[in-house]
Design goal:
Protein Transport Mog1p, Chain A, three-stranded antiparallel beta sheet, PsbP C-terminal domain-containing protein, Mog1/PsbP_a/b/a-sand, PsbP_C, calcium ion binding
Amino acid sequence: MSSMASLKLSSSSPISIPKSSGIVGRRGVSFLFRAEQSPSSSSDHQDKCQRRRVVVTLGVVAPWISLLSKAPASFAAESKKGFMTVSDNKDAYAFVYPFGWQEVVIEGQDKVYKDVIEPLESVSVNLIPTSKQTIKDFGPPKEIAETLVKKVLAPPNQKTTLIDASEQEVDGKTYYQFEFTAQARNYTRHALGVITVFNGKFYTLTTGANERRWEKMKDRLHTVVDSFKITV
């Protein structure tokens, strides 16, 4: 969360916390409170009452500021700038995708988001049932990735190359990540994938872009793959 902007205090100006500071109410309403100076002819009693009102108002808002400043780090991680979050409670997974991509429906895929201008830039999630308990039961990362790339993730008429495959352990769950290219007659798609097994399901997330745009897109695509997690 961004640091809170300094509060400017003056006898005639409002004491406000601008929206840009991120200090807002639960319904998105920013706090604004004002301390107006009593006329010079006012009694000391009126001055004291005015000061009390300012102190009380600050005392009410301060706990909100304190609570918001202690928001868990996981919340910030789930709100990456330039990305949207998908959370599927039914199938217990979540991931992020670049802002601006549109959801499309493709038969056989659980979720698909893609760029409407660059159609090779997309992310998809596929689930199939399995009796295996963990992704390790299928074999090592390179072996499984090569099989998926050649027989499932690319058409048989495309030339595929597995670039890398690795294993990650996150919160007690094992994920295999891999990188590959699939060469068609008129283009080459550079792609990333992640697979795991949980609760009788084999999960596959793949994302990629045209090879000519790989250098521009690779950091965002790695963010997509790294974000994929089982949520229970």
